[in-house]
Amino acid sequence: MSKNNSTVIKMDEQVLKYKEDLYEKTVHHLKVTIPKKIAEYQELAKSYGQNSENEQDGQTSKKRKLDSEDYVLMPIEDLIKTNRVIMETHQKFKKAYIELIETFSVIRGWISLNIPRIEDGNNFGVDVQEDIITQITKLEEVYTSLLDGSESYFASRASLVKKILKHKDIEAYRYSLAQVDEKEFTRFSFSYFDLANNYATTYSLIVKNFAKLETPRPTNASNIY
Amino acid sequence: MSKNNSTVIKMDEQVLKYKEDLYEKTVHHLKVTIPKKIAEYQELAKSYGQNSENEQDGQTSKKRKLDSEDYVLMPIEDLIKTNRVIMETHQKFKKAYIELIETFSVIRGWISLNIPRIEDGNNFGVDVQEDIITQITKLEEVYTSLLDGSESYFASRASLVKKILKHKDIEAYRYSLAQVDEKEFTRFSFSYFDLANNYATTYSLIVKNFAKLETPRPTNASNIY
Amino acid sequence: MSKNNSTVIKMDEQVLKYKEDLYEKTVHHLKVTIPKKIAEYQELAKSYGQNSENEQDGQTSKKRKLDSEDYVLMPIEDLIKTNRVIMETHQKFKKAYIELIETFSVIRGWISLNIPRIEDGNNFGVDVQEDIITQITKLEEVYTSLLDGSESYFASRASLVKKILKHKDIEAYRYSLAQVDEKEFTRFSFSYFDLANNYATTYSLIVKNFAKLETPRPTNASNIY
Amino acid sequence: MSKNNSTVIKMDEQVLKYKEDLYEKTVHHLKVTIPKKIAEYQELAKSYGQNSENEQDGQTSKKRKLDSEDYVLMPIEDLIKTNRVIMETHQKFKKAYIELIETFSVIRGWISLNIPRIEDGNNFGVDVQEDIITQITKLEEVYTSLLDGSESYFASRASLVKKILKHKDIEAYRYSLAQVDEKEFTRFSFSYFDLANNYATTYSLIVKNFAKLETPRPTNASNIY
Amino acid sequence: MSKNNSTVIKMDEQVLKYKEDLYEKTVHHLKVTIPKKIAEYQELAKSYGQNSENEQDGQTSKKRKLDSEDYVLMPIEDLIKTNRVIMETHQKFKKAYIELIETFSVIRGWISLNIPRIEDGNNFGVDVQEDIITQITKLEEVYTSLLDGSESYFASRASLVKKILKHKDIEAYRYSLAQVDEKEFTRFSFSYFDLANNYATTYSLIVKNFAKLETPRPTNASNIY
Amino acid sequence: MSKNNSTVIKMDEQVLKYKEDLYEKTVHHLKVTIPKKIAEYQELAKSYGQNSENEQDGQTSKKRKLDSEDYVLMPIEDLIKTNRVIMETHQKFKKAYIELIETFSVIRGWISLNIPRIEDGNNFGVDVQEDIITQITKLEEVYTSLLDGSESYFASRASLVKKILKHKDIEAYRYSLAQVDEKEFTRFSFSYFDLANNYATTYSLIVKNFAKLETPRPTNASNIY
Amino acid sequence: MSKNNSTVIKMDEQVLKYKEDLYEKTVHHLKVTIPKKIAEYQELAKSYGQNSENEQDGQTSKKRKLDSEDYVLMPIEDLIKTNRVIMETHQKFKKAYIELIETFSVIRGWISLNIPRIEDGNNFGVDVQEDIITQITKLEEVYTSLLDGSESYFASRASLVKKILKHKDIEAYRYSLAQVDEKEFTRFSFSYFDLANNYATTYSLIVKNFAKLETPRPTNASNIY
Predict the structure, then answer these.
(1) Distance, in angstroms, between B95 CA and closest chain C CA?
(2) Mean predicted lDDT score pLDDT of chain B
(3) How much is the average pLDDT of D116-124?
(4) Nearest to F110 by CA among F18, F203, F209, F206
(5) pLDDT of residue A5
(6) Confidence class for position B2, pLDDT limits 50, 70, 90
(7) Residues 6+ apart with CB under 8 A from F78
(8) How high is the pLDDT of residue D221?
(9) Contact A27/B10, CB-based, under 8 Å?
(10) CB spacing of D20 vs A6 below 8 angstroms
(11) Cα–Cα distance for residue pair E201/G19, rounded to 1 Å
């Protein structure tokens, strides 16, 4: 501190405007974007589940998921081609994951800017804010790491294809490749349900505690700027 | 919070409908799906155990599990073929694991959406909800990682077969391959018992505490939406 | 919870029958299987110890354990053969380990199903149940990882044999192989004592606390179904 | 301590001047630099988001982000060229990250030098200082590690290009390269929002608690030199 | 628990006999085996120390430990031979380590079987039992991992000899080999002292607290069976 | 303790003299060395910052930092030459880091020797001593690991140059090398500020608490020897 | 415990004699060995520091430490020769480290054997004993791991020399080798100071608390045997 007097630093108008902008986006997300997303993914989870069942009972022509046996009998030129269905589904899910991260990072941004001055008590509301920021940050980290899913899928596929080409007589490499592709379909079958579930659980946490997020210390509102 | 007034955000009807849908599925799972699964896996554990005993006493013709010695004497072309029994049993267990994950993630979803607003006390019911969500999440993680079992089995088998082909005179690689296959049979012999046991233990935890899961704070039901 | 009334979910008869079946097996294990195992392994530990001593004093013809020097002088064709005694002993111990895991996982299963509803106090009995479940789970994990022992033994042996064949003049690889085999014999010499000791210690813990395992909350038995 | 008398050591004038210099820079950053940065990155986040949307609807000629398919069809000489847009955007972000680190390390330096003598109580203000130093240090560590982003991007790109050149028929390597580049664009799309958000959250924390940072122990100012 | 009555399970006579057998061995170890071992290793530590000093002053003809320089000048055929002294000393120490493990695992076994029923208080004696079991387990783990010492010594020696043969002009590999052998001699010089010290410290802990190990809960002896 | 009487052991005069010598060096460092260093590095940070700005605006002839593009166009013989400026700056910083470690390890040595006898209370002063020893030890560890910086820089540079020579057509390796060199200049730009900041923060901590470091327990000075 | 009576086990006379022997060595170390070592290393630190300064100002003929440039210009046959000064200094330090470990492990041994029976209170003295045993164990671990220093130095040197021979045109490998050697000289320059400092700090801790180490529970000496 300067030797003679202490300096008064106030929240800059531009920053308050930035916070207000995040607040409006937050309200829009809670009233419109998120409920719509939950309904959308609930439907997609149902229809995706239905498709897999039809496929297992042979009702659909276009088989997305091959059986392990197919991988052993398939000529090598087909084997090393990338499965179009897997690639397209990856792109769809990446868009969905980016949307989720963008939506909740706005809400996290607003809550962080709404944390009042550190005080030696009366912190229940601040604990709620910090608890919810932690939950949202965890959610964003899960979906950020899921974004790397396709890179690691292609890397494993490429290295197995390399081994298949090098050791044409070792059947187990082909089965291993079958498992790598099958795992993607298994993950897809959970992904829509998980998206609906994660949106809903985090939405429910925020909505039920919105009053505390807005006014962490009810008595003296002034300290929140 | 907007400078002048605070916004009221209510749980969206679509989300409440989503929660109701999860609730009905949860009740169905507790009354029908899970008890049926426990009985099914209890039987499979008994019959699987019986088969292994008959096989050891040479009563069954079709030997699923070869002895180590077989692996040393077997011609290389047979050695490098994948064991059909192991592959089929993998596929059966993967289906069972996916079913378990789907069943309990629905229940976890409902419980999460039933967690009331964060309050500074009267949280015994919420602690029960969070404790059971943690147990279910752990169960789902165990079975999600078990889904990778077949990929790592084929990868180890392939790399050992490669070494056997390259070092035909090193007996120990063949014994190592025998252990890799034998370990799968040992795992299968535990898997049905573990499935019955895990379904039953988690079911017992949920059923005995269902009242608290439904109504974590008895006095004022309104705060659960 | 459904908006109008709360649902009563009771423990399904099939699950209670499953629990009863585990209970009867538990009593049988405590009264018959385990005491018999402890005596059996106590004897095997003594006789195994006796054999090693006779062998060191050269009394027995068939030397199971070779000295390091033998490994340096031995022709390479013999060196790369797997030691029959080690393989047979592995198979014996694997059977013993599987039996131990099966025996205690049944007891663990029964105790888990006997954990009463979560309550905010009067939990001393439940703590005893959870403490003993933790001890049994640790024991099962130790013996499950010991099951992998033979696979890693053969993998180390194979890779050393490969180096010996490649670098015939490097004596130290042959000594290293001698150590790998010798370590198996050292482990065997402890294994029977450890089996007796682990069975006895876990048995003693369960038997001394059996009343609490059966009736964790003495006053009101109804809550255990 | 010297056997006879204790030595009085006072804060050197040069060090007090150094602290005063950091203090003035801190005030300038809080009043000018940081609010300007928040507004700047808020704008960049909006305009960057807008560009990506236009690009996806094909409105802009210069496509920064290629689709996976482009990577499979592209001739190898183009494939192995580094994407100019990615490189330029890296350089821009590195400048922004260095600025952020320089800005907040000055503020951290001032706060550290303003921590008073260790006392056995009356430490609420010191806890606020230490808490904020921890937050700033975390922020600096995040952006220091982000500085390594471009080195690891080029290393992954180089090693994938090497594999593509070596295994021209393995399509999956090309898709893997597409993911590596696409990931950079996804990171860029978050980076401006994160910069605005991190500046604002840390700024809000410092400004709201500036009084405590300046005068951690209100009663006796003398102990802060 | 069976729906109608609770079962009484008592400690099986065979198990009590097993415990009694461990008890007698424990008393013998404390009165005879261990004091003798401490004296023996105290002597060996002194005489080993004396030999090293004589060797450094050149008094002994047979130099066990070569200087680094010897390794550079030595012809390659001698260099790649394993140092007889190191091998023989390894075998001696392995015998000593196995003895230590066998001795204390018997004592640990007895103490474990003497742990009374879990009670909600009056546990000071039980804490002493568990503390001493932890100390003995740590000691067994240290000496079990030391048993692997010779395997890793030969593995490092073999891989360095391989490099020396491949890069005859790189002096530093020969110095590295000198360090690997020298390190064994340094370890040997500590090993006898450590054996005496570990035996004595653990013995002192057990003897001083023997009353508590025998009778953890003085008042009612019946609960220990 | 010897069976009959207890031995009195006093601090040896040579050790007290050693402590006095450390004390005098400590006072000299706090009054002279450190303030001078803080001022010196504050200046160097400013001038280093100024140079980089001039360079970016092209005012200086001798460009220390090349742009990524230079690395792609540069002939390979120049590319594989080590950047003189980076090497010289490394040597300068290593000297500065060694000085910092020597300066503060003397102060840490004195404080450690001034820790009084362990007592069951009245330990506030001792806690201050131990807290400051921990801070200084952390500082020394940071700068000891920074000393390894140049070894790892040359190792990364060498391995990238090797790849560039092997894969002349893979541009990304050249960009990767550009990043490795650029990272050193970025680190240099922070290093002088960090040196000033770390000296100042640790100095301020020691000076403000010097009375407690000298006399941790005011009442009875005798126990500090 | 045997079913009828409890056994009295007393500390064996040989063990008490062993403890007395450690006690006498401890007193000798505290009165003679350690103070002498502190003075010796204090001197060596000063003279080593003096030599480095003279060398930097070119006063001494025999340059122990070469500059990085020397490594680039030096013919390869000289480069691959091991630096005699580094090797001799390693041997000197190894002797010093072994002495330190032997000295303090004797003291640790005595303290451990002087720990009284575990009691439910009155444990301040025992806490002091355990705290000091922990400090001495940490010191022994630091110097045991430093003993491996020369092995890892020669391993790094050998692998860099291999790379220099393989890639004669990559200058950076020669600079990397210069850093590896320079790091040893930097470590040497700290080692004597650290030896003096570690001896002194541990000595000061033991001497100031010697009364508690000897008589942890003043009231009743009998329980210490």
Answers:
(1) 22
(2) 89
(3) 95
(4) F18
(5) 55
(6) very low
(7) none
(8) 45
(9) no
(10) no
(11) 10
Distance CA F224, CA G143 (A): 28
Nearest to A18 among D180, D183, D196 (CB): D196
Q: For residue F177, what is the nearest residue in chain D, using CA coordinates?
A: D151
G59/chain E closest Cα distance in angstroms:
30
Q: In this structure, which CATH number among 3.10.450.50, 3.50.50.60, 1.20.120.180, 1.10.3720.10 belongs to the domain B13-224? A: 1.20.120.180
Mean pLDDT across the stretch G192-221?
A: 92
Estimate the share of chain B in helix, then strand, then coil, as percent rounded to the nearest 5: 75, 0, 25
Residue G220 pLDDT more than 90?
no
Rounded CA-CA distance F129/D123 in Å is 18
Shortest CA distance from B69: residue in chain C:
C87
Chain B residues touching residue C115 (CB < 8 angstroms): 204-205, 208
What are the percentages of helix, strand and coil residues in chain A, rounded to 5? 75, 0, 25
Q: What is the pLDDT of residue D57?
A: 54
Q: How far is G26 from chain F (nearest CA, A)?
A: 10
pLDDT at G62 > cutoff 50: no
| Structure tokens belonging to residue C151 | 């696979």
Inter-chain CB pairs, C–E, below 8 Å = 123
- Asked if the Cβ–Cβ distance from F98 to G186 is below 8 Å, we say yes
Give dist(CA C216, CA C214) in Å, integer.
Answer: 6
- Angstrom distance (rounded) from CA A186 to CA B97: 11
Contact list in E for residue G112 (CB cut-off 8 A) is 197, 200-201, 204
CATH architecture for segment(s) D15-224: Up-down Bundle (1.20)
Q: Where are the domains of chain C?
A: 18-224
Mean pLDDT of C187-215: 97
The Cβ of residue F6 has, within 10 Å, a number of other Cβ atoms equal to 12
Partner-chain contact A38 B19, CB within 8 Å = no
Kindly list the partner chains of chain B, i.e. chains with 3 or more CB atom pairs below 8 Å.
A, C
Residue-level pLDDT at G56: 55
pLDDT in tens, G151-186: 999 999 999 999 999 999 999 999 999 999 999 999
**pLDDT for residue B205 is more than 70:** yes
Which has more confidence, B146 or A1? B146
Residues from chain C that touch E10, judged by Cβ atoms under 8 A, are 207
Q: Does domain C18-224 have CATH number 1.20.1250.20?
A: no
Domain F23-224 has CATH 1.20.120.180: yes
Provide the ipTM.
0.92
**CA-to-CA separations, E40 to E143, E199, F50, in angstroms, rounded:** 18, 11, 73
E13-216: CATH superfamily: Proteasome activator pa28, C-terminal domain (1.20.120.180)
8 Å CB contact between G173 and G167? yes
Question: How far, in Å, CA of E49 to CA of A192, rounded?
Answer: 71
| Structural contact between residues D114 and D216, judged by C-beta atoms closer than 8 angstroms | yes
Cβ contacts from B onto C, under 8 A: 122
- Distance from the B13 Cα atom to the nearest Cα atom in chain A, whole angstroms: 9
Q: Are the C-beta atoms of residues C35 and C207 closer than 8 Å to each other?
A: no
Of C9, C116, C118, the CB nearest to B31: C9
- pLDDT top residue among F115 and B57: F115
Q: Where are the alpha helices (DSSP H) in F60-170?
A: 68-73, 76-79, 84-113, 124-146, 149-166
* Predicted confidence band of residue F58 (pLDDT cuts 50, 70, 90): low
Residue F66 confidence class, pLDDT cut points 50, 70, 90: low
Across chain F, how many H-helices and E-strands are there?
9, 0
Tell me how far apart the alpha carbons of residues A38 and B20 are, in angstroms, rounded to a whole number: 13
* pLDDT (tens digit per residue) in D16-49: 999 999 999 999 999 999 999 999 999 999 988 7
